[in-house]
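pinging the channel bc i need a second pair of eyes. not urgent but kinda urgent?? the chain im working w is below, pasted from the shared doc
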Amino acid sequence: MKPQVFALIEPFARVIAADAAGAFEMVGPWSDLSAAEAAQVRVAFSSGIDRFDADLLAQLSGLQEIVVFGAGQSGIDLAETTRRGIRINAAGATHAGDVAEHGVAMILALRRNLLGADSFVRSGAWASGRMPSTRRLAGSRVGIVGLGHIGRECARRLDALGCDVRWWGPNPKPDAGWPRAESLLDLAQTTQILVIAAFAHDETRHLIGQAEIDALGPDGLLVNLSRGFVVDEDALIAALRDGRLGQAALDVFETEPTPPQRWADVPNLLLSPHSAGDTVESILALRQRAVREIAAALER
């Protein structure tokens, strides 16, 4: 009998099982798993947002490790997994560079008004006048919230582009290479561009609220690469409409897919569908990693 790995999303799990060429079997709610069989599962596979809550974890009483496809773990009850000593094996470093690259691209698109420039040419407005000047990125003060894998990759790229990079997180990092702000609010008050790359969990819900958004100000740009709930979305929308925040770029949302009507009249905004880490190269690397780490977990 093949080793069994528990998952919640059947099509996603079957892709990984196929990549493994039958080395293990994916099981889940679709396979009529009995209570006794569920209790024997030692390894689970998660997208990171599917809900591994305390009730489900109680059914998986023999679980030892959860292999997460990407970096996020917002769907996993981390307090319960910590209490039970369940290992969380996430792919933080695998596609951090791809996420950071996407974030920098969004910053450049907004600061240099690339979408507006495209429209200016296509609409024929160029024949009637000159497009307004944009903002240089080099020399900008950039704050990174959370200096994990993605935060560091953002900092490296923005540093290379000539930005003055600072960061804030709850824990000092002596090897950071960039100065740490005294507080999150201090970071928002002293930067022009605020990149959110914080670890998303219950304690970071609405970490970025009205105070931080107002501190960033009418010339500021907020970029969220973490999870939607880390930023107070209602406060963000209100600030953009009122002109209290200059610009925003969002790859993540409180509800996904986000309702398009929610953003229909919100100005100075660039949106992408939680796709920052979704490159051909990163998806292949993540699939290969998932197979490798599940196999290793089954051997432990």
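so The chain has a mean pLDDT of 96. and The chain has two domains: 4-92+280-299, 96-271. — does that match what u expected or am i reading it wrong
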